[in-house]
Amino acid sequence: MKKEEILKKLRETEDYISGQELCEYYGVSRTAVWKAIKQLEKDGYCIEALTNRGYKLIDKNVTENDVMSQVSIESYIDTKWAGKNFVFNKETGSTNQDVKALAEKGAPSGTLVVADSQLAGRGRRGRDWISPPGKDIYMSLLLRPSCMPDRASALTLVMALSVIEAIDELEDFKDKCGIKWPNDIVINGRKICGILTEMSAEIDAIHYVVTGVGINVNQTQFDQDIKGTATSLFLEGGNSVNRSKLIARIMHYFEINYAVFEQSFDMSGLIDKYNHFLVNRDKQVRVLDPKGEYDGVAKGINEDGELIVIRSEDEKQILVYAGEVSVRGIYGYV
Q1: Are 191 and 184 in contact (CB under 8 A)?
Q2: Which among 88, 105, 83, 96 has a CA at the least distance from the CA of 207?
Q3: In three state form, how does the secondary structure of 249-297 look?
Q4: Rounded to an integer, what distance in angstroms lies between the CA atom of residue 278 and that of residue 272?
Q5: How far are the Cα atoms of 93, 116, 229, 264, 283 from residue 121, in angstroms, in the given order?
Q6: Residues 36 and 15 both lie in one domain
Q7: CA 323, CA 125: separation in Å to the nearest integer?
Q8: Are 167 and 43 contained in the same domain?
């Protein structure tokens, strides 16, 4: 039997649950239940076993927030395809690279790779993404959309929307997070999540797309050079967050949002939801274009995911494409 089935039952039960009850519920032997319990304990779960009473998950909240494993994540996944084919690594070079390798071997769309730490995590434009163990979320999702390659960039925005919807469920963060166009999730003007999307394609066909997500979850401090622009859910909310459950909720929302995206292969069906979370909307921004910087007011995105900016100097509407262009607030990062 699968460990996550036992874990779900222990999580749902406030008191002890007998081995016999577990045997009857899952139709397995006492030996199978005992082996599953031992495997969970090896994964880091504290399970108390008492004669004539059964098993109980101890310190449930602490355990669930501290332990992230294959079984803990699988026990929360409720999707049809997003994250169903799933790989967990305690340590890896880069989850994006892991997914690319699986894609080349024919892995299906929706394959998810999660790592507890990365040795070679990357952000946009080749920047390092610091990836310590035991604290944060590093994951990458494989997609095989049947659209033209020029439509794939919107998937970064679809993922950003899915991440923020999952975080918005958390009691400490309801209506407190925003998206800094195109795909950074911010709280109180500081970044908690970055998204990197990469693609393998020909001129008229996509082989696969990999969307990587890094979220600062339970980190308690940052290096001097980034602490002015970076923060974590723990630092902002004061409580540790269950990483496994958050991953599952992101997959839940991504599956819903991706179905909308697939109807037109653009953001037309998601514009209103995305703009609701857009912190730049109706704010002054500075567009850092290699051809020349300019100031303006951001008005939201269009169906292609471009940021609509009214340029200050001439009131002209400019459509800003993510590419090599960055958008900052007039007085800071957001």
Answers
A1: yes
A2: 105
A3: HHHHHHHHHHHHHHHHCCCCCCHHHHHHHECCCCCEEEEECCCCCEEEE
A4: 10
A5: 7, 12, 18, 32, 32
A6: yes
A7: 10
A8: no
Region class of 201: left (phi > 0), else alpha (psi between -120 and 50), else beta: beta
Per-residue DSSP letter, 108: P
Are 295 and 330 spatial neighbours (Cβ–Cβ below 8 Å)?
yes
Number of domains forming the structure of the chain? 3
133 phi and psi angles, rounded to 5 deg: -80, 155
**Tell me, what CATH number does 314's domain have?**
2.30.30.100
The tens digit of pLDDT for each residue in 190-204 reads 999 999 999 999 999
Domain that holds residue 252: 66-277
189, 186, 194: which is closest to 277 by C-alpha? 186
Sign of the C-alpha dihedral computed for residues 324, 327, 333 and 334 taken in this order: negative
| Residue 290, CB-side half-sphere exposure with 13 Å CA sphere | 5
**Helix 30-42 to helix 3-12 angle, to the nearest 10 degrees?**
80
pTM: 0.83
334, part of any domain: no
Token couple for 45:
């779960």
> Do 117 and 219 touch, CB atoms closer than 8 A?
no
Q: Say which residues have a Cβ less than 8 Å from residue 157's Cβ, sequence separation at least 6.
A: 182, 183, 267, 270, 274, 301, 305
Rounded alpha-carbon distances, angstroms, from residue 201 to 104, 151, 264 = 12, 12, 20
Over the stretch 215-273, which tens digit does the pLDDT of each residue have? 999 988 888 878 788 999 999 999 889 999 999 999 999 999 999 999 999 999 999 99
Q: Does the residue 7 lie in any domain?
A: yes
